[in-house]
Amino acid sequence: MTISGITEADIADFLANTPAFFERHAELLATVRITSPHGHRAVSLQERQMEMLRERIRGLELKIVEMIRNGQENVAIADRLHRWTRAILLTREPAALPGVMVSQLQHEFMIPQAAIRLWGTAGAAGESWAAGVSDDAKSFAASLTLPYCGVNSGFEAASWLDDPASVMSLALVPLRHGDTAFGMLVLGSPDPTRYSADMGTEFLLRIGEVAGAGLSRLLG
């Protein structure tokens, strides 16, 4: 819109750069009427400013509530991780560690299915966690720089679970001693969105680091 060569942009620029204008014409704050986005009724500049401030406050309140909720969730996760780590430290028999890790993970984090497979271990004959693993699966574990999270697309690791046919999404966590992968932790869920490709993996990395450190006692 242009009036005698003056555009709306010129008016907006003038008002933005002349704060004293409304000091000299304070009556305009109450007399100028604009349309409110709430009900499309006419309100004064002062009323519209108050509406904007209320909207901004509501937005800040929602952000604060979200921050508090995230903080509470992080504390709960930290508590579960602490209990899981404590159970590992209290396990005296190395051969019992894989079972303790899996059962406690499932209990603390409500994971439907989980399993561990290790290779290169000593004195593990007959243990399910020491059953055969293909060279392809070993190479896959060694190639993972981050845990894999996503759909179950026929990974060998899914067959290590009790009911692989029901698993729709997986998390595959490599277990390392130094730079060498010597095992893999697999978490499975019937929920296809439980482990998704866009989820954060920092927590799973910590799980893998703790599990790798504890299970390294089983290496030959």
Describe the structure.
The strands form three sheets. Strands 5-8-7-6 form a four-stranded antiparallel beta sheet. It has a two-stranded antiparallel sheet with strand order 1-2. The mean pLDDT is about 85. The protein is an alpha+beta fold. Helix content is about 45%, strand content about 20%.
Question: Which key phrases capture this entry?
Answer:
single chain; 220 residues; alpha+beta; 4-stranded antiparallel β-sheet; elongated
Bin the strand percentage: 15-25%
Give Rg in angstroms: 30 Å
Spatial order of strands in the largest sheet: 5-8-7-6
General form: elongated
- Report helical residue fraction: 40-55%
- Low-confidence stretches are none
Task: Report the mean per-residue pLDDT as an integer.
Answer: 86
The end-to-end span amounts to 82 Å
- How many separate helices? 7
In total, how many beta strands?
8
Largest sheet: 4 strands, antiparallel
Q: What class would the helix/strand composition place it in?
A: alpha+beta
> What are the secondary-structure elements, in order, as H or E?
EEHHHEEHHEHEEEH
